[in-house]
Amino acid sequence: MRITSIEKSNKNKSMASICIDNKQEFVLPLKRIDALNLTLDKNIEPETLDYILKYEVYAAAKNSAVKFLSLKLRTSFEVKEKLSELGYEENTVSQVINDLTEIDYINDYKYATKYISEKTKLKPKSIKLMEMELDNKGIPNEIISSVIEELNPDDDLVALELLKKRYSKYSEYDENLIKKMKSYLAGRGFSYNQISKAISKYLPED
């Protein structure tokens, strides 16, 4: 068997794909390719290729995942997308994610809990909007529902507190300002009924 091409990735210049006998076999960081002395036209034994596929590729993918996770908490879906972007095959990606999940490096439940807790305190929004955002990050619905049930955020209270924080400086509330209040809460994901209820509680009685 012979290395017939070593092609740098267009998406990530630190990665390259290697073809053996004109068939793409694996991707690796350029540093590892150099360290393993993998060069164009070099003959490669089946045992060497098997070792690279089983150990080198996995180790490189795992290192990439750990580095990605060292910056902040990530969902399993985000890690999967990152490794896929680097060119790693699905089997390798799945193995890395499973192994990192087992040692709690990846924990979607912990991620969802931290996400909702922080959003509720720092940038409040509706439960519905937080659910949508977590869904977009690949968090399974059952995890989202479980975290929501555990933390039990109060949409009505959050909507009312948002109005107090943003509009307490006003002493009069005309139709135009009320329209802005409705738009503001709608942008935070609250329903028509929740918005009406919050505004009704917030506005001073005549």
Topology:
Elements: E1 3-8, E2 15-20, E3 23-29, H1 30-35, H2 46-71, H3 76-85, H4 90-102, H5 108-122, H6 127-136, H7 141-151, H8 155-167, H9 175-187, H10 192-202
Antiparallel strand pairs: 1-2, 2-3
Helix pairs in contact: 2-4, 3-4, 5-7, 6-7, 8-10, 9-10
Function: Modulates RecA activity.
Keywords: Cytoplasm
Domain RecX third three-helical: 158-199
Write up this protein.
With 206 residues, this protein is mainly α. The protein folds into three domains: 3-101, Arc Repressor Mutant, subunit A, CATH 1.10.10; 108-151, Arc Repressor Mutant, subunit A (Orthogonal Bundle), CATH 1.10.10; 155-202, Arc Repressor Mutant, subunit A, CATH 1.10.10. Helix content is 62%, strand content 9%. It has ten helices and three strands, in the order βββαααααααααα. The protein has helices at residues 30-35, 46-71, 76-85, 90-102, 108-122, 127-136, 141-151, 155-167, 175-187, 192-202, and strands at residues 3-8, 15-20, 23-29. It has a three-stranded antiparallel sheet. Strand 1 (3-8) and strand 2 form a beta hairpin. Helix 2 (46-71) packs across helix 4, helix 6 (127-136) runs antiparallel to helix 7 (141-151) and helix 8 (155-167) crosses helix 10 (192-202). The radius of gyration is 25 Å and the shape is elongated. The model has no long low-confidence stretch (mean pLDDT 92). Keywords: Cytoplasm. It is found in: Cytoplasm. One of its GO terms (cellular component) is cytoplasm. This is Regulatory protein RecX. Residues 61-100 form the RecX first three-helical domain.
